[in-house]
Amino acid sequence: MLVDTSRRHFLAEGLAGVSAVWVSTHWPSLVAAAEHAHAQVKSSTPPKFEFFTSEDAAEVDAITSRVIPTTDTPGAYEAGVVFFIDHALVTFAKENQKVYRDGLLALQARVRELFPGTDKFSGATPEQQDKVLESLDEQSASKGRNPFRRPAGGQSFFERIRVDTIMGFLIDPDSDKKGNRDAVGWKVIGRDPAHMFQPPFGYYDKDYPGWQPNSSSTDKTKS
Amino acid sequence: MAAELFEHGQNEIMTPDTPKYKTSDEVDFVVIGSGAAGGILAKELSENGFRVVVLEQGPYLTEKDFIHDEIEVLNRDLLTNHPSLQPNTFRKTPNEKAKPQRAIAYGRLVGGTSTHFTANFWRFHEIDFHERSKVGPVAGSTLSDWPITYDDLEPYYTKVEWEIGVSGLAGASPFDPPRSKPYPMPPLPTKSNGVIFERAARKLGWNPFPAPMAILSQPRPGRSACINCGFCLAFACEVGAKSSSLATAIRMAEKTGRCEIRPNSYVHQIELDANGRATGAVYFDDKRNVQRQKAKAVVVCANGAETPRLLLLSANKQFPDGLANSSGYVGKNLMFNSGAMSMGVFEHPLNDYKGFAVSRILHDFYELDPDKVGFHGGGGLDARFDITPINFALGSLPPGSPRWGKGFKDALAHNFTRTVEIFCHGTSLPVEDNSFSLDPDLKDAWGLPALRMTYKDHPDDVKLSNWLNKRAAELLDAAGAEKSWSFPAGEQEFTVHLLGTCRMGNDRKTSVINSDHRTHDVKNLFLCDGSSLVTSGRGQPTMTIEALAFRAGDRITALAKSGDLSV
């Protein structure tokens, strides 16, 4: 499903000059990893979740897949975000367990309210799912980051899972957090997962001839 | 034979012969804090033959512990003061009740904040030392001259560059102050944001130049040159390329065999004897047992927040308002450096996630004419990209961008490699009410009174930030950004620059230390860190803190050798 030539071509072009070769040679393994995640989520044998029931996991997987959807490139689903969140809730983010427990119930109530006859978020169509999430999103557009202001506290379930999805998609794949499986998230945003780089780094420094003195510069070195 | 030799050599390198002093040993100096200043003072004093114990509240981590995990480093304070262990309160003015609100971040580990800083290493300019004389009084500010000049500090700036390791190009900026030596190594590579910045600035008639950075462009013994991994600001360097105290001065101090670095040691009191001399430092060890390290003299380098706090915590009969606080200036005149930022997105990928943050800066606006611009101060601009992937996705898309869904994902895929920040750094005017004090109610995890910050930017600082930010926006326009946006500067409530809170001066009524870094009140008590600064410069204070530390090392050594400290 994910493998087709045009998609590989797209991804390679999107990262032109950076890591196209790396991505195209590693793409089959990324797909294999994604298929593995898929199998684990959909499997009839109970997958290994530490906090979620398999029903919860299917709901969380469905929500995260609307936050960062699978398009012609991998999304939250392929990055294994549900496994990241599940692991977080029993390790470094235990304090959020209640937000998830209560939030999933409220979410399902909202699904039933908006779409009578549908019980679960994962049972709704993608369009319906987006409507449900829109109804829970208190801040629809980004206000941008201002480093001189601390971000405001207070957090709804939607904001929590939105942030957690982003974290699970983009966390260092070498960390022990079980997210960003095979660095798919980094590759989507154009971050080469390599650990060390040499110049030239990008388009504008590629043909940079080197620093020349400003016309008004004077050397004030005394000796 | 060869193998034996190799093993012997390796042992020598891996386990330097560092002493373990007993707390009852009266060492020559106890240095409190191991950051930018503490590391250098430990090195200087131990190299000069003194026995030194460094008490550091944080853990002793090394390169193998430094990771790229944004959650651990940024969200869970792996390297920084933790708000649940050491909370603080904040208020804008002294007549308000302060509320718990995180207002500061500093490195809490061996090496201190120098382990995780951006490593911009500008020298202060001449004006920063005598601005009060030049411009006269500024309403609402305690602006004062330093008791030392740029010329006094110049040899020590050079020492920092050569001994600690700074990359740069001498003579590249027409506004640079005089220097006695070029940089010891060339500037770091030019990033795409640097090229964009340089071309646009020249179009506008400004003078961009290669940023001086405390990051190695060439390897040094035991340290790699920068590998451009891209996890720089807020992260600690895993190859020792960032010139932190950990990667430099601390190791040199340990090599003397006379300096012990004692981590997990949280100093909360300095005691005096009947003659008014400091006897050492009282601290909680890692098991929260109280220990007393005896020393002939005490040097506090705990940073511009924790140094005044420690003096206030050490109040006694002789100094009921805080140790060495006869002036009432301990904790006062807090400065942050003003700041503002504009961002732009460009047509082609810059891939600025690779490498250190900054490769070009400019100082054309370092000394603005108050009569022309209508406010006091000046600043510098830099082009940078210091945003790691999660942080980028959480808030660095243009305002109005989608926050989830396909549009969000597409925007991340387009913008992550194409975004540039133009940062404005400027003056913070000293204001007496801006301060650190002890919160009357809130306690930290050790039961000690928490820090209370009182801070309201001088109105000129906000005007300056917005003025500089207009230049940043002009620069992004001239650079041909596809899209650009600015954040209007307002009053700041959070800082990583902790400056001015035990200022240096000749007048004991309006300063806490003299030009030797000795407190006016206690003969064998010295303070050296961001708290010593009289003015804020125009940003990037660490270079000046380190130059002061080298100079303090010389001054304290001279006093000790003349018998003045009985060490």
Short account of what is shown:
The complex is a heterodimer of chains A (223) and B (567). With 223 residues, chain A is mostly helical.
Topology record:
The complex is a heterodimer of chains A (223) and B (567).
Chain A (H helix, E strand, L loop, with lengths): L4 H10 L5 H23 L11 H14 L13 H8 L8 H18 L11 H11 L20 H14 L13 H6 L13 H4 L17
Helix pairs in contact in A: 1-2, 3-4, 3-7, 4-7, 5-6, 5-7
Chain B lengths: L1 H13 L12 E6 L3 H12 L4 E4 L14 H6 L12 E4 L7 E2 L26 H9 L14 H16 L26 H12 L4 E3 L38 H7 L3 E4 L3 E7 L5 E7 L5 E11 L5 H8 L24 E8 L12 E5 L7 H4 L5 E6 L4 H7 L10 H10 L3 E8 L8 E9 L5 E6 L4 H20 L4 E5 L37 E3 L14 H20 L6
Parallel strand pairs in B: 1-2, 1-9, 2-6, 3-15, 9-17
Antiparallel strand pairs in B: 3-4, 5-11, 7-8, 8-9, 10-13, 10-16, 11-12, 12-13, 14-15
Helix pairs in contact in B: 2-7, 2-13, 5-13, 6-12
Description:
The complex is a heterodimer of chains A (223) and B (567). Chain A has helices at residues 5-14, 20-42, 54-67, 81-88, 97-114, 126-136, 157-170, 184-189, 203-206. Chain A is mainly alpha-helical and 223 residues long. In chain A, helix 5 (97-114) crosses helix 6 (126-136). Chain B contains 13 helices and 17 strands. The longest helix of chain B is centred in the C-terminal third of the chain and has 20 residues, at 459-478. Chain B is of the alpha/beta class and 567 residues long. In chain B, helix 2 (36-47) runs parallel beside helix 7 and helix 6 packs across helix 12. In chain B, the strands form 3 sheets. In chain B, strands 1, 2, 6, 7, 8, 9 and 17 form a 7-stranded mixed sheet that branches. A 6-stranded antiparallel sheet of chain B has the order 5-11-12-13-10-16, with helices on one face.
Largest sheet of chain B: 7 strands, mixed
Q: How much beta of chain A, percentage-wise? A: under 5%
Name the structural class of chain A: mainly alpha
Pair with the most extensive interface?
A-B, 71 and 87 residues
Whole-number mean pLDDT of chain A: 79
Shape of chain B: globular
Gap from first CA to last CA of chain A: 68 Å
Largest sheet of chain A: none
Can you count the helices of chain A? Answer: 9
The poorly predicted ranges of chain B are: 1-15
List segments of chain A where confidence is low: pLDDT < 50 over at least 5 consecutive residues: 1-34, 149-153, 217-223
Structural class of chain B: alpha/beta
